[in-house]
Here is the input.
Amino acid sequence: MSDDISRPAAAPISPPLARGLLTRRTFAKASLGVGTIAALSACGAKGTRMKPQYGPDKSATDKVINWSNWPEYIDVDDKTQARPSLDIFTKQTGIKCNYTEDVNDNDEFYAKVQPFLSKGSDTGRDTFCVTDWMAARMIRFGWVLPLDKTNMPNWKNLDPTLLNVGWDPGRVSSIPWQSGFTGIAYNPKSTDGMKIETIDQLLTEPSIKGKVTLLTEMRDTVGLTMLSMGIDPADFNDDDFDAAIAKLQKAVDAGQIAGFTGNDYGKSLASGDTAACMAWTGDVVQLKADNPDLGYVLPASGHMAWSDNFLIPNLAQHKTNAEKLINYYYTPVAAAMVEDYVNYISPVIGAKEILVTEDPEVADNPLIFPSDKVRANSHIFRGLSTAEENAYNTSFQALIGG
Here is the structure.
C-alpha cells in the first residue's frame, strides 16, 4: 500500500447525472433571521483572535479522517451509492474517510461548531468545507490551522485566480473545494426574445417588471449591484454599500422585483413565471440540460465568484491525513471525477484535460470550465469585520423583508 497520491489511479468517469436541483446551493439560503445571524456573528471571539491550537496529530497511527461537507457535493455511483473518488483515496493511502453531509447552511453549521471552537475544544472534525465569507470569519477568529504545504505538493495545481483572496492571501489556511460564478439567467419566452445582459436591465427593464428575482445571498446580490455601479466588491466602504442597497431598494419599491430566493428560482425560471433572475452557474448547467433555450449571462461589468473552501479546525486530531486528502483532490484525475458529477467550477488546473477525453460535453461547457478572460472578470466580496457583518446583514435583511 502506497502513500504516494500524486498520481491517483484512473477510474471510469460517469456521464453527468440528472440530479434535478438538489445541489450544494439548494441549502445555501438565508434560513436564519437577522437577529439570529447577528447573534451568531458576535459569538465567541469578542474581538480577539485566538492563536492556532494544535492537538496531538494521530495521523501516523490512526488511519482515519473526519470530513464534513455539503449534500450532493461529491461524486456518487448511482447503483451502489459509493463515492468512487473517496474509495480510490482509501485504497491508495489506507486512510478511511468518515464523510458526513452536515453542512446544510453556513450559519447553521457555524452554530454547530462555534461552541467548541470558541472555547478551544475539538469539534470532532478534521476538515470541513464552508463558503468564502464563513471561512473568512473563522480565520479572523483564529479558529483554523495553517495548512502544511509540504503535505500538499499538488496545491501547485490551484487555479492562480483563486490564490490571493483578501481574507487569506496566499491561501495560508484555506484552499477551494469547488467554485462558482453568479450572473443573470433569463427565459427568452418571458422576455419576448430580449437578452437580459446587465444588472441595470434586471432592475429597471419595464417589460419584465414583477417577474425578476434576486438572491438571498447578500454578497451575490449586493456584489453584482456594486459592480454595475463601478464599485469593486473587494474594496468598498460603508457609503458604497449603502449606495448599492439604495439602488436595490428603488427597484423593490418600483415593483420590479418579485422576490428574493435561494436556488428555488430554478422551477419558476424554467416555467417562465420568472423572466430573469440572478443565478449560480452550477444550477444553470442543470437547468439548461432540460431547457437549452434558457439564457445565461455574466455581465460585462463583472460577475461574482465564490468558493467553498477546505479548512482544518483547531485541535483537529488528524491534520496530516486531512492535508493528504486535500492533496489527493488536487490531482487532475480526482478533481475531474468530482467535477463530472457536481458540475461546478473546478479549482484544479488539469481537470479539464482529463474530461476532454472522458466526457467532452462537460469539458466543453463554459459554465463549468470558463475561459481565462471570464475568470479575470470575476470578483470576490471582501472579508468583513464582525461589526460590518452585523450592520450589513441588518440592512440587507430589511431590504428583502427578513
The domain at 24-180+307-367 is CATH 3.40.190.10 (D-Maltodextrin-Binding Protein; domain 2). Residues 1-22, 27-47 have pLDDT under 50 and may be disordered.
